[in-house]
Amino acid sequence: MLAPAPALRAPSLVPRPRLVASTRLRAFHAAAHQRLREPIIPGYSYAPLLQRSAATSDPRLAVSLHAALLKRGLLASSHIFLCNHLLIACFKSRLHRHGLRLLDEMPRRNAVSWTTAITGLTQGGRPAEALALLRRMRRAGIPPNEFTLVSALHASSFVGGTGVGPARQLHALAVRLGFDSDVFFTNSFLAAMVRHGHLADAVQLFDNANARDIVSWNTLLAGFAHRSSLRLCTLWRRMAIEGVSADGFSFSTVLSGLAGSANMAATGLQVHAQLVKSGFVDDVCVGNSLLEMYMRNKQLESGTRAFTEMRHRDVVSWTELASGLLHCGEPAKSLRVVSDMILDGIWPNNYTIAAAASACAYLGSLNEGRKIHGYVIKLGGDSNVGVNNALIDMYAKCRSVTCAYKVFQSMQRRSVVSWTAMIMAFANGQAREAVKVFDDMLLEGIAPNHAAFYSVLYACSQGGFVEEGWIYFDAMADKFGVEPGEDHYACMVDLLTKAGRIEEAEELISRMPFHPGVLA
How far apart are CA 358 and CA 372, in angstroms? Predict the structure, then answer.
């Protein structure tokens, strides 16, 4: 007889000791195997990755590498080499706060660490913080090197309200440390003098310098290009006499400096001839400067030929030609250049659009103006203040004040030029609206300038608003510090004369600060 089958038992919820031990053992072996599979990256292997992060200015890569270095404890140890590379990556990626926090947390810092942070802040548009960090560096007892002082000098050039005081202090420090003969430092100090407008001091420093290179010459050329075309020409001749070979930046600076200059006729042609011999004639920046020089001096034929001979053209080249043609009184040709530019596959920028809008205003062509406005919307340039100002002026001169006002109302930001353009648009035919726009400008806290006052006084003259005219005229100097000019007096005299107030007009003429015959 068969024995009865054993009854089935419910599975136990309590793990067996052997099973627990076996599970833990397997987990241990799996973890150990995983650790064996994970490569142990030595600290020095991170340097190329950090260099790539700095080269690409990738903030995500910089943060990821920072996390990896922290996880492996490489930053808490004495890896100052890696810390400095990480600092460079942070500041190149514009992670300024991240970089400053890293600098504070570094167990050891050397001159490279501080210099990296100072350079990063300077290049990131935070010059005041860069100079403050230099003071911290000196208080920490770390002597600056020549690269530190060059970056600090560069920062001092962009700190407003301080003049050349900080630059002179840095120069004195460089002399004490023996860096005054370094050409890089000399160039930085020279640039600081030029940026602050101390050209006499810059020339003295240039003449007394122990060493000069092409950057030294270019820095002084750039200073003269904005202030004295005569001295610019003199320095250019001195370069040739001393046998200094000009580079592309030299040619570009001199040619731009001669734009609109009386010295252009003689020196400009000489520079052009030297340019052809130099081999820089194919440089697009140099070509654009050559084009600018001819067009701004209304040398239309030479400018057009220079444009035609350019092997490489960019949007600046086309824009310069379009603006130059407009400057020379050829608005139709200017618009044709913009059309050719688009057909050539070059999309216009904001300066091109502004020039095209001005050409439409000159021609009074509303249809062409609307096409230009369409390009603005398509390119997404309708948020640019300068472009919108040009559109307002264009619509006003094409007698479409309604369109001008729509552009004005759509603007998120308005400058005093925007308000002035809208006031002038309303002044002819809708004088009361012009006065209202001026009052709205004051309520917005925008201080009117010479042109804004002229526009509202012209509107008062057109509308016959004598009392408002006197209020605005008297407020110019008293409340806004704008001295009335000849055009303001002319508007007031016209306003009073139209209103039949001849005696008031004569009395105003008698107290004008200039000869009344100018207004006749």
Answer: 10
By the 10 Å C-beta count (0-12 exposed, 13-18 middle, 19+ buried), 278 is classed as middle
> What sign for the dihedral angle of Cα 156, 157, 159, 164?
positive
Domain parsing of the chain, residue ranges: 213-297, 430-520
Q: Kindly give the residue spans of alpha helices, DSSP state H, lying in 344-430.
A: 350-363, 366-379, 385-397, 401-410, 416-427
DSSP three-state, residue 243:
coil
Tens of pLDDT, residues 19-55:
444 554 454 344 434 443 445 555 567 778 888 888 8
φ, ψ at 437 (rounded to 5°)? -65, -40
- Cβ-contact 425, 453 below 8 angstroms: no
Rounded CA separation 78/153 (Å): 31
Residue 107 DSSP class: S
Q: What angle do CA 6, 11, 12 make, to 5 degrees?
A: 120
- Summarize pLDDT for 129-139 with one digit per residue, the tens: 999 999 999 99
Q: Helix and strand tally (H, E) in the chain? A: 29, 0
Contact 168, 194 (CB under 8 A): no
Q: Which residues are CB-contacts of 25 (< 8 A; sequence separation ≥ 6)?
A: none
The letter for the amino acid at 141 is G
Q: Give the DSSP letter string of 358-383.
A: HHHHHHT-HHHHHHHHHHHHHHTGGG
Residue partners of 272: CB distance under 8 A and separation at least 6 = 255, 290
In which residue are the tokens 């004195």 written? Answer: 172
Scan for tokens 């840095």, then name that residue: 170
* Euclidean distance between CA atoms 408 and 413, whole angstroms: 10
Asked whether 493 and 503 are in contact (CB, 8 A), the reply is: no
Q: Rounded CA gap, 492 and 457, in Å?
A: 7
The C-alpha atoms of residue 36 and residue 84 are separated, in whole angstroms, by 31
Distance CA 481, CA 61 (A): 53
Residue of 356, 274, 283, 414 whose CA lies nearest to 291: 283
Instruction: Give the Cα separation of 272 and 275 in Å (integer).
Output: 5
Tokens (6 digits) for 374:
């369409």
Please name the residue that has the structure tokens 């987990």. Answer: 27
Residue that wins the pLDDT comparison between 423 and 164: 423
Q: Do residues 510 and 504 touch, judged by C-beta distance below 8 A?
A: no
- What tokens were used for 351? 């300066």
pLDDT at 23: 52
Q: What are phi and psi of 483, to 5 degrees?
A: -75, 130
Residue 96 has pLDDT above 70, yes or no: yes
Q: What's residue 359's pLDDT?
A: 94
* Of residues 333, 342, 354, the one with CA closest to residue 315: 342
Q: Is the pTM of this model over 0.90?
A: no
Q: How far is residue 85's CA from residue 470's CA, in Å, rounded to a whole number? A: 67
